[in-house]
Amino acid sequence: MNKVLMTALTALLAGSALAADPAFPKAPSGKVTLEVWSWVPGLDKTVQAFEKAYPNIDVKVTNLGGGPQTYTKLLTTLKAGTGAPDVAQIEYGFLPAFVDTGGLTDLSTLGANNYRKYFVPWTWGQVSPDGKAVFAIPQDTGPFAMVYNDAGLKKYGVSVPRTWAEYEKAAATVYTKSGGQVKLGNFYATYAPWFMALAWADGAQFFKRDGDRWVQTLNNPTAKKVLNYWYGMIKKGHVGTLNAFTSDYWNAVGAGKVLSNMEAAWGPGGYAGSLKDKTAGQWRAANLPQWTAGSTVRSGNWGGSSNVVTAQSKNKEAAMLFSLWLNLSQSAISNNWVNGGLFPASDAGLDFAVLKDKTKNPSKFFGGQDISAVYARASRGVNVNFQWAPWFPFANDNFNKQMDLMLKGRLTPDQALDAWQRETLAEAKKQGYDVR
Amino acid sequence: MKPPRAVPWLFLSPFLVLFAAFYVAPVLYAGYLSLFIKKRAGFGPAKEVFGGLTNYVRAFQDSDFLASLLNILKFAAVQIPLMIVLATALALALDASRGRLQGFFRTAFYLPYTIPSVIAGLLWGYLYSKNLSPFNQITGRSFDFLGSDVVLWSIANIVTWTWTGYNMITLYAALQNIPSDLYEAARIDGADGWNLTRFIKLPLLKPSLLLVLIFSIIGTMQIFSEPFVIRPLGYVPDNITPNTYLYLVATRDGNFSYAATLAILLALFTLLLSAVFLRFTRRGGDL
C-alpha cells in the first residue's frame, strides 16, 4: 500500500515538474518566415524545436551580439521604415525609447494580456507600463543577489553579511586584515542600471508617468542614501571601483582581490565563463544585503530583456506566437538558460529543474549550490512599480560623467545625483518631453 | 575627326553615378534632415516637423558640441605636428640609409597602418588598462591611461602610432623622386649632410608635406573608432570628439535631424580649417 502511494506520489510530482506549456495562440496558416534579431547565444538551436512544432513557420535568427551597436541597427531600420526584423530583443530600460519611435506593435491588440499571469509580476510592469498596452513579451531578468568568494570570506573571518550595516563592517575588516590589498566589494561606476537596481531594491523610483506628463527624480532620497553609503566605503578604500566586464576586473577577482559583488541573475554565468579555473568552486550566492533585517527579501533588477514585434512585421500574429513560445515553453526556457544563461521571466520557469543542475555551470562554479533558488527569491522580491523613461539612454551615459566627477572628488554624492537629475532633465526637455 | 562630345562623359559616368549616389545624395539628404525638429504632445511617438534653422541655432549654443570642437583642435595642435616631425625624420633617415635593413624598417614603420583602427583600439585598450598595463608593471606605478583627463592623449598616441608610418611612406616616396643630379651639383658646391637636407631635401619635400598635413587635418576631424572602442573600458566623455558626440545624438538620443545638423557643421568647419591652412601656407612661402 505504502509502495503504491509512493509511486503515485512520485508520478504526480514528476507530472507537476513537467507542467504543460500554456496554450499558445493558434498559428496562422500558410508559409511564414520570421526574422529574429537577438543576442542570445545558441538561439538558432532553440528555435529548431519551434519549427518542429509549427512546420509552416520558418525562423531566421540573426545574432547581433548585443551592446549599443545592436540598438543602433534596430533604431536605424525603424527610423528608415524598412529593413527591421519581425522580432527583436530589447532590454527593459531601453524599451520606452523604442516605443517612442512608434516602430513597435502594441501586442495587447493581439491578445497578449491573456498571458500576463504566466510571468513574474514585475516583469509585466516593465513591458506594459500603463497596464493596458503591451510593447514586448518579457524574456529574461536580472534580479539582484550577492555573489561572494566563500574561501576568501573565511580567510578574513567574516560571515556572509545580511544587512548593509554588516556589509560595511565586513568590508572594513577585510581591508584592515589584508593590509589594504583585498576589497570586499566593488562599485560599478559606469553602469547606471547597476546603481539603480540597488536603489530599486529599497523602493526608489527614478521615472514616473503622471497623466500626460513625466516626473523624473534621479536624485531621490533613496538614491542619495545608497550612493552616500557606497561613497563612504569607496573613500576609505574598503570597496574598489574597477570597471565591469574589463580584464582588469576579472583579473582582480581571479586573484582574490575582490571578494564579493552585487550581480544580476545573468552575472554568475559571466563569473563561471570569465574566471574558468581561477577560484572555481569557491563562489556562492546569497540574498542581497537588506537595509533592515527581516524575513522578506527585497531586490532590484539589472538588465534582462524582452522581445518586441516591430510595426514593420508582416506576420505579427506569428511573431507574437514565437515571442510567447520563446519565453514560456519549457524547451525554450531550458535551452535559453543552458546556452545563454538567461534567467527566465516566466514564473513557472523559475522552478525548472534545469536551473538547478549542480553538474553544470554556473552552479558548478558556485560549488554545486542551487544559486537559481537565491535568484528566484530575489526575482519575486523585485518591486513591481518601477518605470523607465524614453530618454533613459541619455541618463545612462550622463551617470558615468557624474560618477567620474564624484570619484575625482569634484562632486559630493548628493551633488553628483543633483547634476545627473539637472542635466538629464534639460536633455529630456530638449527632446520635447513634458517632464518635471 | 573629332570624337563626339559624349565620349568623355561616357568614361566619366561610372564615377559620376557613384559620386552622386554615395556623396552628393547623402549630403543633400543630411541638409534636408537638418531642417526638421521633433514635436511631442503627451505620450507616443514624436512628430517630425519643419523647424527651419532651429537645429543650427541649437548647435551654436550646445556646450557639448562646442567642447568637442575645442577638444579636437587641442588634439590636432599637438598630435599633427608631432606625427609629421616624426614621419619626416623617419623618411629622411630611411632615405639616407643604405642596405638591406632599409626595406625591413620601411615595412616595420608602415605595419601599424595596416591594422584596422578598431583592432588598434582594442590592442591599446589592453596596454592602457590600469592594473594590467605593461607600462605600469615595468614602472611599478598605477597610472590610469584611460582616466577622463588623459584619455584624449592616450588616443593621440594610438593615432600617432597608426599614421606615422603611413605618412612616412608618402614623404619617403617624394624623397626618392628627387633627381640625383641635384645632389651631385650640391656636393660639387661643397654641401653635405645637414646642408643637403636643409637646402635640397626639405624644400623639395614641401608639396608632399602640405599634402600630408591637409590629409591629417581632415583625418583628425573625423576621429571616431578609437574613442568608440575605448568607451566600454572606462569613462570616456561623450563629447571627446565631434564624431562620437554626433553619433550618440543620432543613435542614443534618436535625434537624427540634429545629428545631421552637427555633421554638416563639422564638414563646414573642416573645410574652413583646411582653407585657412592652405591660404596660410601659400602666403608663407618656404617652410
Task: Report on the architecture of this protein.
- The complex is a heterodimer of chains A (436) and B (287).
- Chain A is of the alpha/beta class and 436 residues long.
- Helices cover 42% and strands 14% of the residues of chain A.
- Chain A has helices at 2-17, 43-53, 68-80, 95-99, 121-127, 150-155, 164-177, 192-201, 221-236, 247-254, 267-275, 316-328, 330-340, 371-380, 392-407, 413-430; strands spanning 32-38, 57-63, 87-91, 137-149, 185-186, 207-210, 213-216, 239-240, 260-264, 283-287, 301-309.
- Chain A is globular and about 70 Å long.
- The relative contact order of chain A is 0.18.
- Chain A starts with a helix and ends in a 6-residue tail after the last helix.
- Chain A contains 16 helices and eleven strands.
- With 287 residues, chain B is an all-alpha fold.
- Chain B has twelve helices and two strands, in the order H-E-E-H-H-H-H-H-H-H-H-H-H-H.
- Chain B is globular, with a radius of gyration of 24 Å.
- The model of chain B has no long low-confidence stretch (mean pLDDT 90).
- Chain A binds chain B through residues 67-68, 71-72, 75-76, 79, 97, 99-102, 189-190, 209, 212, 242-243, 245-248, 251-252, 391, 393-394, 397, 400-401, 403-404, 427, 430-434, and chain B through 38-40, 42-46, 58, 126, 129-132, 148, 232-235, 237-238, 248, 251-256.
